[in-house]
Amino acid sequence: MPERTPYVAANWKMHKTVAEAGEFVDALLPRIAATQSDVVICAPFTALSAVVERRYGTAVKVAAQNMHEEASGAFTGEVSAAMLVELDVEAVVLGHSERRQLFGETDGELARKVPAALDAGLEPILCVGESEEARDGGQTEAVLERQLQADLADVPGEALAGIVIAYEPIWAIGTGRTATSEQAQEACAYIRDLLRERGGAAEEVRILYGGSVKPANAAELLGQPDIDGALVGGASLDPAEFAEIVNAA
Ligand code: PGA
Asked: What's the confidence (pLDDT) of residue 158?
């Protein structure tokens, strides 16, 4: 089985001005100097350049939190993959549950966004996950299967290795209610099984867990065989806390 490099991403959501982003990176870098993991900062559009400039010469990668699937056009308020690449951004979060729920992002759009990101040379961090209702109704696997099938419909098997999947149960996001390590492992293993069925490089794909990851629970979650990293929201806003999670990986 190939060794998968751990992947720990900070999803700042709509937090941090340029000045705050700069202070964060300056405080983070010395704390994670020894890490062998991929460390990714998913910053708001306005702070991307500030993070990119400060991380040159380090292992930190920079991701946007969304993009439009078209290369250009009359799409007021949107940003294309090429615009991100021009800033030396390397990755993009797609399909976060907040975008699906609050901004109406559909699986149809994601089926176009994922290949558009790959074509532009961006690493998609594709988020999937079930609602509390779906979990209670025994529909977790059905939801994951439906989302992955739809969102990766136009991605050939051999391109899968360039994608990162984040399993984020909606009921665990920002709620303080973390999935147990068994629940998270079970879902991530199921996602890997689905990728295997697509004949892709399933063993190479990094699968992250997201949802109330904290320094106190990171080591146990990241110690699971199919969990290769974390997508961290609230606990990524503080450099010391985020560094602890990185160093637990
Ligand atoms: P949380 O957010 O860590 O605050 O639960 C995770 C996410 O939404 O990516």
From this structure: 87
Q: How much is the pLDDT for 2?
A: 62
Q: Respond yes or no: is residue 53 known to be catalytic.
A: no
Catalytic residue among 96, 105, 130, 244: 96
Atom of ligand 1 nearest to the CA of 172: 5
Q: Ligand 1 centroid to 72 CA: how many Å?
A: 30
Nearest CA to ligand 1 atom 1: 233
pLDDT exceeds cutoff 60 at 122: yes
> What percent of the chain has a predicted confidence (pLDDT) above 90?
93
**Full-model pTM:** 0.97
Name the residue of 102, 173, 245 to mutate for ligand 1: max ligand atoms within 8 A of Cβ: 173
Please indicate whether residue 168 is annotated as part of the active site.
yes
Determine which of 30-39, 189-198, 199-208, 227-236 has the lowest per-residue pLDDT on average: 199-208
Task: Give nearest CA residue, ligand 1 atom 7.
Answer: 233
Which residues approach ligand 1 with their CB closer than 6 A? Answer: 11, 168, 173-174, 210-213, 231-235
Per-residue confidence (pLDDT) for residue 34, from 0 to 100: 95
Nearest residue (by CA) to ligand 1, atom 3, is 233
Per the structure block, which two tokens stand in for 118? 């790959």
Q: Quick one: pLDDT at residue 68?
A: 98
Q: Say which residue the tokens 């629970």 belong to.
A: 217
